[in-house]
Amino acid sequence: MKPCKFFYYRIFDDKEDFDFIKSTFEHKKMEKLLKDFEKTHKNYLNKNFVKFLQKSDPQAEIIKVSEISY
């Protein structure tokens, strides 16, 4: 089985919430899905977009990122 390649995106929603999303989709595919999502939703919320995204990419998820220093 071929290992899956992931892409990571920073995203803001209408409530100014900031999240990181992990997906197997490259940038162009993600842009197309964002446009499709915006056509069918009045409010843009990251958690709703990820649910929409998971219909096509079941491995998509919001990830938490923590800072670390050394």
Give structural notes.
With 70 residues, the chain is of the alpha+beta class. 33% of the residues lie in helices and 21% in strands. It has 2 helices and 3 strands. It has helices spanning 27-40, 46-54; strands spanning 7-12, 18-23, 61-63. The chain has a 3-stranded antiparallel sheet with strand order 1-2-3, with helices on one face. The chain is flat and about 40 Å long.
Brief synopsis:
This protein has 70 residues and is an alpha+beta fold.
Key words describing this protein structure:
three-stranded antiparallel beta sheet, 21% strand, alpha+beta, 70 residues, 33% helix, 2 helices
Question: How far is the N terminus from the C terminus?
Answer: 37 Å
SSE string, helix = H, strand = E?
A: EEHHE
- Across the major sheet, the strand order is 1-2-3
Mean pLDDT: 90
Helix content: 25-40%
Sheet of most strands:
3 strands, antiparallel
User: Segments where pLDDT lies below 50 for 5+ residues?
Assistant: none
Q: What is the percentage of strand-forming residues?
A: 15-25%
Main structural class: alpha+beta
Any idea what the radius of gyration is? Answer: 13 Å
Count of helical stretches: 2
Outline type: flat
Q: How many individual β-strands? A: 3
Secondary structure layout plus pairing:
Elements: E1 7-12, E2 18-23, H1 27-40, H2 46-54, E3 61-63
Antiparallel strand pairs: 1-2, 2-3
